[in-house]
Predict the structure.
Amino acid sequence: MGEIVVIQYVTLDGVVEDPDGRGGTEHGGWAFRFGPEAIAGDKFRLGPLLQSAELVFGRRTWEHFATLWPTRSDPFAGAMNAARKAVVTSSECDLGKWANSTVVADGVDGVARLATERDVVVIGSTSLVHALAESGDVDEYRLIIFPTALGTGRRLFARPADLELVSAEAVGAGVLARYRPVPG
């Protein structure tokens, strides 16, 4: 049985919306203002998970990543491109855009089924993360927290949640914090 690990860039006030600015929101691009030290390479410390886990994306996140990662050639990009990937969608997707990609059409249930076979790493995809948290399926959050507060925007947590700190370390201007949900 695998675990479901959520990775997210997040502000001090919990906003996850538009970290790179491509969404065109008023405060978009907040994660990239702090330089590459907190965003380049394996900042979420996935390491061996890139070879063994299934990377899971919502459709919009997958489509964006499918335009970025296949053109990159550094070692981390090589690991991302070689990894198994699943896009959670009921829409049409051109899976040929990014190698090793498949579709999961049944949302949370499909992701939970994947986790019976291997670890799952959910990247971005806030709506999917909210649904997984609601169903109690998230085993770990790996958050890179940036030293900025936006006051507005979609937040990581849509409901109250108690978490236990597993570890914290500086990554550039941010902090990589690993949390596990406290059983309720």
Notes: The CA atoms of residues 108 and 131 lie 7 Å apart. The longest strand covers residues 163-171.
